[in-house]
Amino acid sequence: MKGWYSGPPYCFRLARILEIIREAKAAKVLDAGCGDGRLVYEARRADIGMDGVDISERALRLAEAFTPEAAFRRASITSLPYEDGEYECVVCSEVLEHLGGDEVEGALGEMRRVLHAGGTIIVTVPSHRLKVTAKHEKHYGPDELAGVLGKYFEGVWIEGLGRRSLLSGAWYNMLSMAVLALYPLRRTLPKLAGWVADRHWNFYGRHLAPAGPREAGYLLAVGRRSS
Questions:
Q1: Where are the beta strands (DSSP E) in the chain?
Q2: What 8-state DSSP symbol labels residue 128?
Q3: CA distance 18 to 20
Q4: 4 pLDDT exceeds 70?
Q5: Please, what is the average pLDDT of the chain?
Q6: CA distances for 140 relative to 62, 77, 85, 124, 133, angstroms
Q7: What is the pLDDT of residues 42-52, one digit of tens each?
Q8: Chain centroid to CA 102
Q9: Mean per-residue pLDDT for 202-216?
Q10: What does the pLDDT read at residue 107?
């Protein structure tokens, strides 16, 4: 996952999502709000049958170019173009923060509808520990996220993704700057660039990826549809 456009934080979140899908043994998965299809691409590489839906035509063109074997459709996640109970797992990664209250309720209702009984829902959102940006409506605390999802799904549990730490975060940012500085030299100094990149990934995985829900920058929620 070290390619594409993303660094360790995003890729660790994707890896955790794929791990949960495998644990659920879901054969047919939907990425609701798939964007440019990065998660679908990684899922298909891992032999997970994932399709995607998104409102952005431009994003879907990229998704289809990267993963032509997947089925992508253009629609709002508040009105999903799928049959009731069509999917065994639905993922909604970093989408709900873009929606207002009524839209969140509508989207969760639709995701519940397209899940079959016993199906798994996986949601990731920025934590309220992160500043709300211009394109976001809101960020969530762990109790709030569990409460919102609990209206539609059973057995909801929350975990943190990406610990917020002043000291470790400063060191990680220094490593990030070193990776960027060495990127243009990756062909002339491949060993040095590779060594720094490995330290960058390993440091994040050891010191920042594990996080409790109340200290994390992102939250991951998992639940199931009972009936």
A1: 28-32, 49-54, 72-74, 87-93, 115-126, 154-163, 210-211, 216-224
A2: T
A3: 5
A4: no
A5: 92
A6: 29, 19, 28, 10, 13
A7: 999 999 999 99
A8: 22
A9: 86
A10: 97
Pairing of strands 154-163, 216-224: antiparallel
d(CA 48, CA 42): 9
**Taking Cα atoms as reference points, which of 160, 149, 159 lies closest to residue 225?**
149
Contact 225, 119 (CB under 8 A): yes
Residue 67 or 169, more confident: 67
DSSP assignment, residue 159? E
Structure tokens at 82: 């799928």
pLDDT bucket at 209, cuts 50 / 70 / 90: confident
Say what angle helices 8-24 and 38-45 make with each other, to 10 degrees. 50
pLDDT digits (tens, 9 = 90+) for 127-147: 999 999 889 999 999 999 999
Q: Which structure tokens are listed for 102?
A: 């009524």
Residue ranges per structural domain of the chain: 8-163+210-224, 166-205
The residues with which 93 forms a beta bridge, in sequence order, are 124
The closest alpha carbon to 87, from 51, 55, 40, belongs to 51
Domain 8-163+210-224, CATH = 3.40.50.150
What is the Cα–Cα distance from 100 to 136, expressed in whole angstroms? 9
Sign for the pseudo-dihedral over CA of 116, 152, 154, 52 = positive
| Residues counted in the chain | 227
Residue that has been written with the tokens 């969530």 in this structure: 140
What is the average pLDDT across 143-165? 94
The pLDDT of residue 19: 96
Token code pair at residue 187:
């062909």
Residue pair 171/200 in contact by the 8 Å Cβ criterion: no
